[in-house]
Amino acid sequence: MSDYPLLDAVNALMHNPNGAKYSAPDTLHVGVDLGTAYIVMVVLDGNKQPLAGAYQFAQVVRDGLVVDYLGASDIVRRMKQTIEQKLGVELTTAATCYPPGTSRADARVCENVLYSAGLACSGMLDEPSAANLVLGVQNGAVVDVGGGTTGIAIIKDGQVVYTADEATGGTHFSLVIAGAHNISFEEAETLKKDPNNHRRLFPVVKPVMEKVATIVSRHIAHHPVERIYLVGGSASFAEMGQVVENITGVATEIPPHPMFVTPTGVALSS
């Protein structure tokens, strides 16, 4: 068991076809993360313990913005129906998130995706702030390395005092792998997701990691950051934490199952 039992439990449920036992009429807390690479849904019970979850690779979001509204809605609707069948109860509300610095109009698109999938939106917050609801950082920086963008939240005394978001993330890993090996983007994604390939792919993706680290370094330069916490699916690539630590000069930690940190925080916020 890690220092983050909630994440361990969420990860276990993501790979459990039956989900946890649900006792009606318990309150449900649902979070939906519309990511550039993956859409993730997490359901917690009234005690904020995991009940069910689902995730699917999808290219309906680009650089933090929904570019395929119908595609996103269809995926969320199918996830909702699958989880409802597991739990035997209807999901009616959910919270969602958006990259830092997103305009209100663009953030509202995420909200509208939920509505079109049959879910009333119970709240929205930025991605790194959602992640920190799980991590509980008091002083440091939470960095969400998503598919298309890297979001940064600087935390002081438990409060977010600064946020930023810039393009560059896991999608760029796949693009450079595809180019270097003359393969399709989809084939590169498959290679990237297999940890057994990370060592041989590291020289190819290292420049992208260094760009992410440089983005982080620039945004934390004027803040006394004690530790950096990396979340998001791209954070699970081998050596990612070490590259960020080398360039920023700040101790860097990656919690277990980093892809599920932000959606779990979104569910906690709902």
Taken together, the total number of domains comes to: 2
The proportion of residues in beta strands is: 15-25%
Elements, N to C (H/E): HEEEEEHEHEHEEEHHHEHEH
Q: How many extended strands?
A: 12
**Biggest sheet: strands side by side, in what order?**
3-2-1-6-7
- Mean pLDDT across the residues is 90
Structural class: alpha/beta
Helix fraction by DSSP (H/I, runs of at least 4)? 40-55%
- Gross geometry: globular
The CATH class of the largest domain turns out to be Alpha Beta
Low-confidence stretches: none
Largest sheet: 5 strands, mixed
Radius of gyration based on Cα positions: 18 Å
SS summary, helix count: 9
CATH superfamily of the largest domain: ATPase, nucleotide binding domain
CATH topology of the largest domain: Nucleotidyltransferase, domain 5
Cα distance spanning the termini: 26 Å
CATH architecture of the largest domain: 2-Layer Sandwich
Could you characterize what this model shows?
With 270 residues, the protein is of the alpha/beta class. The protein folds into 2 domains: 5-126 and 259-269, Nucleotidyltransferase, domain 5; 132-257, Nucleotidyltransferase, domain 5, CATH 3.30.420.40. It is 42% helix and 25% strand. The strands form 3 sheets. Strands 3-2-1-6-7 form a 5-stranded mixed beta sheet, sandwiched between helices. A 5-stranded mixed beta sheet has the order 10-9-8-11-12, sandwiched between helices. A hairpin with a 3-residue loop joins strand 8 and strand 9 (149-156). Helix 4 (127-135) packs across helix 9 and helix 5 packs across helix 7. The longest helix is centred in the last third of the chain and has 23 residues, at 198-220. The protein is globular and about 50 Å long. 50% of the residues are buried. The mean pLDDT is 90.
